Amino acid sequence: MSADAAGRDAVLDARIRVDRGGFALDAQLRVAAGETLAVMGPSGAGKSTLLGAIAGFTPLTAGTVQLGGRTVQDAAGVDVPPRERGVILLGQRARLFPHLSARDNIAFGMRAHGVRRADAGMRADAWLERVGLPGFGARRPARLSGGQQQRVALARALAVSPRVLLLDEPLTSLDPATADGIRSLLRDELAATGTTAVLATHDAADARALADRLIVLEHGGVTAEGAPDAVLGEPATPFIAAVASTLPGTDGSWQARVESAETSADGIRAHARTADGDLVELILPAGSPVTSGSTISIRPPAS
Q1: What is the pLDDT of residue 173?
Q2: Can you tell me the distance from the alpha carbon of 112 to that of 74, in angstroms, rounded to the nearest whole number?
Q3: Strand, coil or helix: 160
Q4: Mean pLDDT of 202-218
Q5: Architecture of domain 3-99+152-233
Q6: pTM recorded for the entire structure
Q7: What is the pLDDT of residues 156-176, one digit of tens each?
Q8: CB-based contact 41:218 (threshold 8 Å)
Q9: Is 67 helix (H, G, I), strand (E, B) or coil?
Q10: Residue 193 Cα distances to 5, 220, 258, angstroms
Q11: Which residue has the higher pLDDT, 66 or 285?
């Protein structure tokens, strides 16, 4: 299926209720064909559960998941297998086949869709060019860096023209410079292919750079929805305010990029590097949504 053909029927419409132990996710979303929706929320809010339900890995307690107007899962027993939905989930780990080369990893999905070996190989080489890895086709994953593996994984996902691409914090495990490169690649390729996408992220920079719309999940429910700048510019909850404060300012604010963060008796102890290259240690309130790759910004008070 071509990207254009996939895009025409790639509207995602979902009403998802999942009860699991003491946790309940209750969320509704609609993603237009070719649109990218970002989902943000604190740890445990239900982001991965939401993506798992759309992909077909998490059973519904109630609700329905529809793709192109067709119900692919509901609580009454409809459950189209994940491989037949045309939905691909890309997470923090690339999960490449270790025994296959980069070229064969990308070609694998196309071969499964009936593309001839020679054609799949040529298309895989073209995708390696697109993701900035020309000449890397013969390398196995062990000879690729984390960022290179994620580029190959993205190429493998997009090469089969998925109806919906689900991205579960794909930049979290990468260093800041590599994450910036993958973010730019994602933005360009999602636009070029017209792929419908749902991006779960903890980073406001991801939402602003990649998404057409943003929803915020807290305690299993949606607390805000709209254009990223609108949601982050007028925070409706303390969590959104904390996330928005990590965005780089344009008013002379002090900024630093978090390299590591850990919980301590004092709160969250973050080690961050400024634009000048200085490494600083900051103690933040417990529960602050700060992880490796976040940007901390301190703005001067309004005059």
Answers
A1: 77
A2: 27
A3: coil
A4: 91
A5: 3-Layer(aba) Sandwich (3.40)
A6: 0.78
A7: 999 999 999 999 988 887 787
A8: yes
A9: strand
A10: 11, 32, 32
A11: 66
Residue-range domain boundaries for the chain: 3-99+152-233, 245-298
The mean pLDDT of 12-21, rounded to a whole number, is: 94
Burial class of residue 281 (count of CB atoms within 10 Å of its CB; 0-12, 13-18, 19+): exposed
User: Can you tell me the mean pLDDT for 260-284?
Assistant: 78
Structure tokens at 53: 């339900």
Fold of 245-298: OB fold (Dihydrolipoamide Acetyltransferase, E2P) (2.40.50)
Q: Rounded to an integer, what distance in angstroms lies between the CA atom of residue 98 and that of residue 139? A: 10
Lowest-confidence pick of 103-112, 119-128, 138-147, 258-267: 258-267
Closest CA to 292 of 151, 171, 168, 147: 171
Query: Using alpha carbons only, what angle is made at residue 30 by residues 28 and 33, rounded to the nearest 5 degrees?
Result: 160
Work out the pLDDT band at 251, boundaries 50, 70, 90: very low
Extract the tokens encoding 41: 């929320």
Q: Do 3-99+152-233 and 245-298 share a fold?
A: no
Question: Distance between CA atoms of 279 and 108, rounded to whole angstroms?
Answer: 43
CA 243, 249, 251, 257 dihedral sign is positive
Count CB neighbours of 99 within 10 A. Answer: 10
Give the 3-state secondary structure of residue 153: helix
**Separation of alpha carbons 259 and 22, rounded Å:** 33
CA distance 161 to 193: 8
Residue whose pair of structure tokens reads 């943003």 in the numeric block: 214
